[in-house]
Design goal:
The complex is a heterodimer of chains A (about 350) and B (about 120). With about 350 residues, chain A is of the alpha+beta class. Chain A is about 20% helix and about 35% strand. Among the domains of chain A are: about 10-55 and about 140-230, Gyrase A, domain 2, CATH 3.30.1360; about 55-135, Aminomethyltransferase beta-barrel domains (Alpha-Beta Plaits). In chain A, the strands form 4 sheets. Chain A has a 6-stranded mixed sheet with strand order 10-11-12-9-3-13. In chain A, strands 14-17-16-15-18-19 form a 6-stranded antiparallel β-barrel. A 5-stranded antiparallel sheet of chain A has the order 5-6-7-4-8, covered by helices on one side. Chain A is globular and about 65 Å long. Chain B has about 120 residues and is α+β, with helices and mostly antiparallel strands. Chain B is built from 5 helices and 9 strands, in the order βββαβββββααβαα. Chain B has helices at about 25-30, 80, 85-90, 105, 110-120, and strands spanning about 5, 10-15, 20-25, 35-40, 45, 50-55, 60-65, 70-75, 95-100. In chain B, the strands form 2 sheets. In chain B, strands 1-2-3-9-8-5 form a 6-stranded antiparallel sheet. In chain B, strands 4-6-7 form a 3-stranded antiparallel sheet. The longest helix of chain B is centred in the C-terminal third of the chain and has 9 residues, at about 110-120. The termini of chain B are far apart. At the A-B interface, α2 of A face β4 and β6 of B.
């Protein structure tokens, strides 16, 4: 077995008594004091997550003639400088190689933020489609700290030289934190007001400690998974993979068809003919949590499988996302979750499961 | 009364012919915040090591195996609304009680010192 990689914050996690797990080749904190407490901190205070395992690429060159705009579903020509956008890197069949966020830092400069497990394949897939321009992988030097929650602004403001009120949702600024370069982005994976800070590994440990001192509660991947699922956000490897299109995963609305991108023909065909699978969000209406891999039944037969599931502290119910066979799905009939022990009735819900009052 | 432990991290306290069954603090610590307990039905018959209850935390799910066989005579219904009681006091919160069919099964379990030594090896 190959050694798990560690982020620049590993020692900080150890000091805080984190429980670690292997996640996509990385040794990452799954929790510190407990998932419920960390979840609560994010919804009502501020939580801080180490997401340095994620990948960052930079592109410099002509956005039109380099071919970069054809590599993903994001139209970087239309994107204003200082804004970022969520989208997909697809294969020819429309399957999702990765979901990512692209930042437009200048007329000829982009940053890509990708999933840890997909760094190598993403880099190669994009690089192979470029005619010119300079494409670099900065993942190993870059740390990423996410501060999320209603108190995030107050905490982060102390560390940046500009007014955070000027930063709208999915906007970012290249700035300075503690004397080093920092990209400050008003994004996150929790549904809360929050910021993602991209900094050099050398600054990260000190910055982490200071943010924790100011009241950001360290939170692990366990809480992060519950928070994102309460919002209905997809997780690569669960809702999304190379055999699933964004349409099948229920995130087709992120795709705009007014420019070329790899996989476009396959998606257009699916839009016209209908997709073989569809995604639903559901509640168990009890504290029983659905789990990844459990079967969904209807009229006595299996019609799909749970891609993500958890107990939601915010709605006090089990919640999940499932991928169903479109042809077998019957709108009228009762849906059941097969827990292995027994079948329980579930109800389809609109996303997000949780929204602020 | 003596408390004994199984390999699967359940504890049992035998009082006459009735055994109270709970989950060790070590097991609960591993599971994290408990969110759901599925209790066995009163009157259900179970053999030693049968999975007769079920527990979930925010991050994981686990079967509860009865460390001794018998008939379920009581289930701790308070846990249905307050599963977090297990996080607060695992070693004193029983989950169900059994009328034991063979008391010698209790003797095969580990005592506290034995269990402590066992979890050191994990």
């Amino acid at each position: 077995m190959s050694e798990l990689k560690r982020t620049a914050l590993f020692e900080q996690h150890e000091k805080l008594g984190a429980k670690n797990i292997g996640f996509c080749g990385w040794e990452m904190p799954v929790q510190y004091e407990g998932i419920l407490k960390e979840h609560e901190a994010c919804r009502n205070g501020a939580a801080i997550f180490d997401t340095s395992h994620m990948g960052e690429f930079f592109f410099e060159g002509n956005l039109l003639f380099s071919g970069i705009n054809d590599t993903t579903t994001v139209d970087v020509l239309q994107l204003p400088i200082g804004k970022c956008k969520y989208g997909f890197l697809l294969n020819k069949d429309g399957g999702v190689i990765d979901d990512l966020i692209i930042y437009k830092a200048g007329e000829e400069r982009l940053m890509f933020v990708v999933n840890a497990s997909r760094i190598d394949i993403d880099f190669k897939t994009i690089n192979d489609q470029l005619h010119n321009g300079v494409f670099t992988n900065a993942s190993d030097e870059t740390s990423k700290l996410d501060i999320q929650g209603p108190n995030a602004k107050k905490i982060v403001q102390e560390f940046v030289p500009f007014d955070l009120d000027d930063l709208g949702f999915f906007s970012f600024a290249e700035s300075e934190i503690m004397g080093g370069f920092a990209l400050v982005s008003r994004t996150g994976y929790t549904g809360e007001l929050g910021y993602e800070l991209y900094v050099d590994n050398k600054i990260a440990p000190k910055l982490w400690e200071k943010l924790v001192e100011r009241g950001a509660v360290p939170a692990g991947l366990g809480a992060r998974d519950v928070l994102r699922l309460e919002m209905g956000y997809s997780l690569y490897g669960q809702e999304l993979d190379e055999n699933t299109t964004p349409i099948e995963a229920g995130v087709g609305f992120f795709v705009k068809y007014d420019k070329h991108f790899t996989g476009k023909e396959a998606l257009l065909k699916q839009k016209e003919e209908g997709a073989p699978r569809k995604s639903i969000a559901f509640k168990t209406n009890s504290k029983r949590a659905p789990r990844h891999g459990m079967e969904i039944h209807q009229n006595g037969q299996k019609i799909g499988v749970v891609t993500s599931g958890t107990f939601s502290p915010s709605v006090q119910s089990g919640i999940g996302i499932a991928s169903l066979d479109t042809k077998l799905f019957d709108k009228e009939a009762t849906l059941e979750l097969s827990t292995g022990r027994k079948n329980i009735e579930i109800t389809i819900e609109k996303l997000p499961f949780y929204s602020k009052k | 009364m003596i408390k004994k432990y199984s390999n699967e991290h359940e504890w049992a306290i035998l009082d006459g012919e009735v055994a109270s069954i709970g989950l060790s603090a070590y097991a609960v610590e591993q599971l994290g915040d408990i969110t759901f307990v599925e209790l066995p039905e009163i009157g259900a018959e179970a053999d030693k090591d049968d999975s007769i209850a079920f527990i979930e935390s925010v991050k994981a799910a686990s079967d509860i195996y009865t460390p001794v066989g018998g008939e379920v005579v009581e289930a701790n219904e308070e846990l249905e609304n307050k599963p977090e009681l297990l996080n607060e006091a695992a070693e004193t919160t029983w989950i169900f009680k059994l009328k034991v069919s063979d008391a010698s099964e209790f003797d095969t379990l580990m005592d506290e010192a034995g269990y402590k030594a066992y979890i050191e090896t994990l």
